[in-house]
Amino acid sequence: MTQRHSGFNPAKPASSVGWMYVLPSVMVLGVVGLIPLITVVNYSVFEIFTLESRFWVAAEWYKTLVTSSRFWASFGRSSLFSLLVLSIQIPLGIALALSIPKRRLWAGLSLAVLSLPLLVPWNMIPALWLSLLNADTGILGQLLTHYGWPVAWKDYTALTWIVILAMDTWHWTSLVVILSYSALSTIPAPYYQAAAIDGARPWQVFRHIQLPKLLHVLLMAVLLRFMDSFMIYTEAFPINAGGPNDASLFLAIDLGEEIKAFNYGPSAARSVLYFLIVLTVAWLFVKARAGLDDPQAGRV
């Protein structure tokens, strides 16, 4: 009797089958991501008067950017803002995750309440905060006026930064909380029981039991928060439009001003440099995460 063989061969790698599953997504990403990227790179080497009138300038726009004090000032502001965001939101998110009740009902309610800011659309965040800070109708504005705090925060650099940082922290700390809580919930109870028997203090429990579990998700949280805060535009621009005196002129806002001025060549070059910065940081985070699992693989 002839033995029939199925088409499945265990010794044959299933990579071709896997590629068939992800091919539609790759095609969509190619259309919505790769083609615009190629277009922007193409624009960055031309002086564009109109879409039909273009002149080749090679790397002129890149040379202008890397020698521009305005570009590096914007880069410094964006980097400082991201550093402040991470130094505030990561510890705060971990602290909130640790304070969530252990009982499932209360834990679920706490996570649901903490997640509410994430449901607010980006373009509504500044409108909400501007209404809260209004001296006549806003709760925060009236409270500040009552205690003699300056409500004209748009005239002060420090106050403008505080408002933007507070707004971003209110909106995104919940993401860190959710990621941290998901990691903490995977720690087996016997670990805590053994620590209690040994008389471990809360800091020792965090250092030796909880933090190792948090490292992977914290790297992901840091990467997500860096990429979003470094590219902040929608939330920051309505607050003070880069003011006062360019004190909150971040890279994305400066790029937006170039586009609105129809400087397509310089804005395209700026976008490419912007993309390379974010891509480099993302690659470093990927290498760092690989190093947690395999120290040899994580070496750059």
Give a quick summary of the entry.
It is built from twelve helices and two strands, in the order αββααααααααααα. It has helices at 15-43, 60-66, 69-99, 104-114, 124-132, 139-146, 157-184, 189-197, 202-230, 237-240, 251-260, 264-293, and strands at 46-48, 54-56. α1 (15-43) runs antiparallel to α12 (264-293).
How would you describe the overall organization of this protein?
This protein is an all-alpha fold. The protein has a single domain (68-293), classed as Orthogonal Bundle (MetI-like fold). Helices cover 68% and strands 2% of the residues. The protein has 12 helices and 2 strands. It has helices at residues 15-43, 60-66, 69-99, 104-114, 124-132, 139-146, 157-184, 189-197, 202-230, 237-240, 251-260, 264-293, and strands at 46-48, 54-56. A two-stranded antiparallel ribbon has the order 1-2. Helix 7 (157-184) crosses helix 9, helix 9 (202-230) packs antiparallel against helix 12 (264-293) and helix 11 (251-260) packs antiparallel against helix 12. It is globular and about 75 Å long. The mean pLDDT is 84.
